[in-house]
Write a structure and sequence with these properties.
Blueprint (H helix, E strand, L loop, with lengths): L5 E6 L6 E6 L2 E7 L6 H16 L8 E5 L5 H18 L3 E4 L1 H9 L2 E11 L2 E9 L5 E3 L4 E3 L1 H8 L4 E5 L1 H5 L1 H7 L4 E4 L6 H14 L18 H6 L1
Parallel strand pairs: 1-4, 4-5, 6-10, 10-11
Antiparallel strand pairs: 1-2, 2-3, 6-7, 7-8, 7-9
Helix pairs in contact: 1-2, 3-7
Length: 231
């Protein structure tokens, strides 16, 4: 493997999803999916199109990275299964990247970044991070699945917060109302989340924190709707 690996990163935790091919800090190619179409219908075709666009053959990829959750249950399963199959076939290592870490990184440097991702039924996945200028993302608590109002109860003592991700954008009115008098800002919507998955995968590579394909596991944070019905 070269000093700086050629990384193929996919993110299927969100409705649209995204893919990126990255080496070091250079994004060679990237694409976003369609939130109205299931990843299962388009992911392999989208991967093939992106590789062709970048004039890169799949065996040239050194490292496969995937957002492992939380996020869409179906999306996560499709993304992880795809990366497992590709990496195992080519005998390549993988990087497991928590979705909320990638969302926090996409928001930019901040001492207090709250990454928010819609979790259905009006609730959100939420986690607090600090993000350094050089792209280090440090968790300050564990990911949770909560109602937006409870998110304010949890983080309301913080005066200066950067809220990141689709969950923050979806809850803009509530955030602006509840954070009156505080320095709470909402980061712009990330254009391609997979590139930030790749950036965190590169940090894992440099730290020797890669995993074998079979070891990839999803981070669900909450039970699936099917599991809730059974219980």
């Amino acid at each position: 493997m070269s000093t700086e690996p050629l990384i193929l990163a996919i993110e299927t935790a969100t409705l649209a999803g995204s893919i990126a091919i990255v080496r070091s800090e250079e994004v060679i190619a990237g694409s976003n999916g369609d939130p109205a179409i299931s990843h299962s219908n388009t992911l392999l075709a989208d991967l093939d199109d992106l590789l062709n666009h970048a004039k890169i053959k799949l065996p040239e990829i050194d490292l496969f990275a995937v957002a492992v959750g939380p996020g869409s249950f179906t999306g996560l399963r499709i993304g992880i299964a795809t990366i497992k199959a590709l990496a195992a076939t080519l005998a390549r290592p993988t990087a497991a990247v928590p979705t909320l870490q990638a969302i926090a990184l996409a928001g930019g440097a901040s001492e207090a970044s709250v990454a928010l991702l819609p979790a259905g039924r009006g609730e959100v996945f939420a986690q607090l991070f600090s993000v350094s200028n050089d792209g280090a993302v440090t968790p300050r608590d564990d990911a949770s699945h909560i109602a937006p109002q409870k998110m304010f109860d949890k983080y309301g003592s913080l005066e200066n917060v950067l809220l990141c991700g689709e969950g923050a954008i979806a809850q803009r009115e509530l955030i602006e109302s509840a954070s009156s008098g505080k320095q709470w800002r909402i980061a712009p919507r990330p254009q391609n989340l997979a590139r930030h998955v790749a950036a965190l995968a590169l940090r894992n590579f440099r730290a020797g924190q890669l995993v074998a394909p079979h070891a990839l596991q999803a981070i669900y944070v909450r039970p699936s709707d099917a599991e809730l019905k059974v219980s």
